[in-house]
Amino acid sequence: MVLPTEPVWYVDGAAREAGVVRSSLPFQQLPDYLAMPPISLAEAPLVASMLREVAPELPLPPTNDASAIRVIDVEPVPVPVLTLNSHARPSAGNATKASKGQAVELAGMSFDYDGVSINVDSSVTLVPMPGGDVMHIRRRYEVEKKRLLELRKTGLQKVPTSRVFASRLLPETMLGLPDADAWSAFVNEAVPDLVAKGWRVTMAPEFRYNIIEIDAIDGTAHQAGDGWFDLEMGIRIGERTVRLEPLLADLFRRDRRWLGGALEAIPDDEPIELKTDENKRLRLRADRLKPVVRVLVDLFDSLGGTLADGTPLRVPSVDAGRLQALNDTGRWQFRGDDSIRRLAERLQAGLGLREVPVPSALRAQLRAARSV
What we know:
By secondary structure, this protein is of the alpha+beta class. The chain is 25% helix and 28% strand.
């Protein structure tokens, strides 16, 4: 036992002796020295490596193999990581209960050093690994500072998190926007810019602005035989196409206006949200979807529940003109058999219905609409 006295004394209970400790360490530094935690044999190479860099004049701890320690000192590191999520806020007058529908959007930042995540406010350079090993990360502080400046230019700033509900304690370095309505513009404008600069941006499923904007609907028609063809609809998400029919089935079930005769009451600029089976949220303006529903409403209605199963829309060849009508809306990109395309163009360009004489043998009075 070493006693923080002046001069410093030691007491050896096993040997039953005591005496003055001869040390070059100033007495004022002794408490800090005695408070230092012990290190394991696995940590010794790392401590020795650090001492060589910051205090080469100090003696090194004993170690078996200083070369066994893993040092992360490669390029390109670090990768800046931005994580976006929505968290519940407590209701008024109840500090322990989250209010339904109330949430706050927060962003967390970290740096990825070759698979090791370092929080933005951490000064850690020694990372314990499974099995007792320790990893030494040589931080790129200038790079980190540059990345922080990039993020600050987007408008994100530190926000208090003491009144935010989360599954774990949130760090004090969580970021937010001063205007809650600015998150949509942040996702649509700032996020793509950050990704282009090398950022990795992840959005939790709960993040309320994790929405993919859809601009166009693709239509594909194939011959089905017997004078019919199958019409399939899809939307592009990255490199893959997602079938639209099941998404529409869910929309029609949630919002009766679409098939209930109130189509024109839906504002053209109303955002319509669809959700895929992978929980991806898609959004498009109502005027992107209304022409499709207007032309194919009877087919949607006739399929009923089978629409949710991805059943293709079966259209008779004499109705192929609908495809050209959809093309004319500018909200539809048709792909499919050339024969169907040519048929659609002929039907759409035809003269249409014309007036014909009433057969003399007909013993009935027709309305004008029926005499054509």
